[in-house]
Amino acid sequence: RNYYGGNWASFSFSGLLSWIKENQQKTDTGDECEDWRKLILENEDVISLSKKDRTIQHVEDFCFGDQDSAEDVEEAGALAKPPVFGAAGDHEGVTRESEKERPPAESGEPGAPSRDPDQAPGPEPASAAEGNGTEIASEGESSRSSALGESALEPGKAEAASSESSAPEPKKITYSQIVREGRRFNIDLVSKLLYSRGLLIDLLIKSNVSRYAEFKNATRILAFREGKVEQVPCSRADVFNSRQLSMVEKRMLMKFLTFCLDYEQHPEEYQEYENSTFARFLTTQKLTPSLQHFILHSIAMVSETDCGTLEGLQATKKFLQCLGRYGNTPFLFPLYGQGEIPQCFCRLCAVFGGIYCLRHPVRCLVVDKESGRCKAIVDHFGQRISANYFIVEDSYLSESTCANVSYRQISRAVLITDKSVLNTDSEQQVSILTVPPEGPGKPAVCVIELCSSTMTCMKDTYLVHLTCPSTTTAREDLEPVVLKLFNLNTEEGKNKMENEELEKPRVLWAVYFNMRDSSGVERNAYDGLPSNVYVCSGPDAALGNDCAVKQAETIFQEMFPTEEFCPPPPNPEDIIYDEDEVAPEEAGSSNSPEPKPESPTEESGSGGSTAVKKEDDEE
């Protein structure tokens, strides 16, 4: 690939259009020459690798924006042509199947992120100041964390004040504007959030990879009930300040959430329902229907029919334990998108000599017939590279290797909209919403809405991610939810309601696709893999990142059982160099093994950035 992160990547708008075009082409890339086979010895076998990524299917993109001309509109030196538009409200008419009508990718790096992976994140003046992100400090820094807690509990004050003073008319976003501002978009292929006490946050702090990343708090949890979007009270302060709950409901909710925090100490409360669903258990807890809905879909975020009582209690406890560490919701989002996270690990890897090769296909694994172990790979240059261990992402394995593997699928949709699903005084909101299943056998849909201060979309737009386990194509799974929450009318873009505040957001552009979920595949399901070849999966359907972290640690421990997984890197002054390396260092070589990290106190606060630091850090 010509971009970092595989299916965890983030793209600019034109980069995503190039990715769409690539995945709509079904042809395999043939071998230019077979000379590489001369490198294979008589006592060796080869395991061919896949020539095309088959993890993405059913890609459909649509444009609902205004029919302005996008000709001669330039993004990073590339010309973009307008899409095909259908009649107003004609969903079928606006699909862009013809590749010649698709805006081409920017030259050079069609899928590259908006910033150099080797460059530390920096502020972006055009939209960074809109954020309300807070500095993320460890629990060991009491003075910092207490200041954090106060600021995080009142998200969006600055934005609300500025919006009240000016209150401009909402701008009408055109397709040419989206193309022109395409570098403002960082569109994730996989939509996830970071639990504030999850495994990934702990790993980022421990390994000091967090120095390369910035984060923003998810500011609100939403629920969809009786055709309306409502905000869910999460923290104690939210519950008692809520106007949508009666005083009796507030007491009910607080009593139940307090029980969930230490439910293990009260087994008599749930033992009778251990074999029942969590939804059934909630009906026995003297909770009103609205409270049951909030807990099931917006706090525990579990299935109404498939989730057992213990699983639901564990999910609720995890949610509650993550509250208050960095803000008034359990979640963080990385500025510039989820694709920043793999790039951050690549940066630290590069500091200590690791090499990440883009545009470097591998043809096959070379296996020794006698030992059965993999000895080397052969790349598309005909170069043979030897190693002791080989880690292969599932998508690189050929169909013959995966013949007995049964995959799950994830349905994904990405929308660019003109306003939030729930308007408030502050426009800069990061929201998570769970839409209950449409009916029996249908999955719940997770909706994450990102504002421009997350550095994932241009000003005056929102980036909306929809995700669910697949039952059919992504469009068939997710379009009913899109129609509930958004307006696809290309003429007016508004619902004809008396109260303008109830108008649905208008979709300007959308893409649907199915992504393979290989997270549950056991190693023995793959045919003929040598013992020193390890397979890692792509993204899973869960909201958090625990599966990926556990998998990475498991593979590492199998290879190096006596080593620590992702240990804290040494300080630059503690590194002892070999004699042959000292001379060039003293001569002023610019290739220093470790860049000096910036002091957290020097970071600009205007960008809403956050800094994750090690616990009990002594400054």
UniProtKB/TrEMBL annotation:
<feature type="compositionally biased region" description="Basic and acidic residues">
    <location>
        <begin position="89"/>
        <end position="104"/>
    </location>
</feature>
<dbReference type="GO" id="GO:0005092">
    <property type="term" value="F:GDP-dissociation inhibitor activity"/>
</dbReference>
<dbReference type="InterPro" id="IPR001738">
    <property type="entry name" value="Rab_escort"/>
</dbReference>
<keyword id="KW-0808">Transferase</keyword>
<dbReference type="Pfam" id="PF22603">
    <property type="entry name" value="RAE1_2_domI_C"/>
</dbReference>
<feature type="compositionally biased region" description="Acidic residues">
    <location>
        <begin position="575"/>
        <end position="584"/>
    </location>
</feature>
<dbReference type="GO" id="GO:0016192">
    <property type="term" value="P:vesicle-mediated transport"/>
</dbReference>
<protein>
    <submittedName>
        <fullName>RAE2 geranylgeranyltransferase</fullName>
    </submittedName>
</protein>
<feature type="compositionally biased region" description="Low complexity">
    <location>
        <begin position="154"/>
        <end position="168"/>
    </location>
</feature>
<comment type="similarity">
    <text>Belongs to the Rab GDI family.</text>
</comment>
<keyword id="KW-0343">GTPase activation</keyword>
<dbReference type="GO" id="GO:0006886">
    <property type="term" value="P:intracellular protein transport"/>
</dbReference>
<dbReference type="GO" id="GO:0005634">
    <property type="term" value="C:nucleus"/>
</dbReference>
<dbReference type="GO" id="GO:0016740">
    <property type="term" value="F:transferase activity"/>
</dbReference>
<dbReference type="GO" id="GO:0005968">
    <property type="term" value="C:Rab-protein geranylgeranyltransferase complex"/>
</dbReference>
<dbReference type="GO" id="GO:0005096">
    <property type="term" value="F:GTPase activator activity"/>
</dbReference>
<feature type="region of interest" description="Disordered">
    <location>
        <begin position="79"/>
        <end position="171"/>
    </location>
</feature>
<dbReference type="InterPro" id="IPR018203">
    <property type="entry name" value="GDP_dissociation_inhibitor"/>
</dbReference>
<dbReference type="InterPro" id="IPR036188">
    <property type="entry name" value="FAD/NAD-bd_sf"/>
</dbReference>
<feature type="region of interest" description="Disordered">
    <location>
        <begin position="562"/>
        <end position="619"/>
    </location>
</feature>
<dbReference type="GO" id="GO:0007264">
    <property type="term" value="P:small GTPase-mediated signal transduction"/>
</dbReference>
<keyword id="KW-0963">Cytoplasm</keyword>
<dbReference type="GO" id="GO:0005829">
    <property type="term" value="C:cytosol"/>
</dbReference>
<dbReference type="InterPro" id="IPR054420">
    <property type="entry name" value="RAE1_2_domI_C"/>
</dbReference>
<feature type="domain" description="RAE1/2">
    <location>
        <begin position="410"/>
        <end position="541"/>
    </location>
</feature>
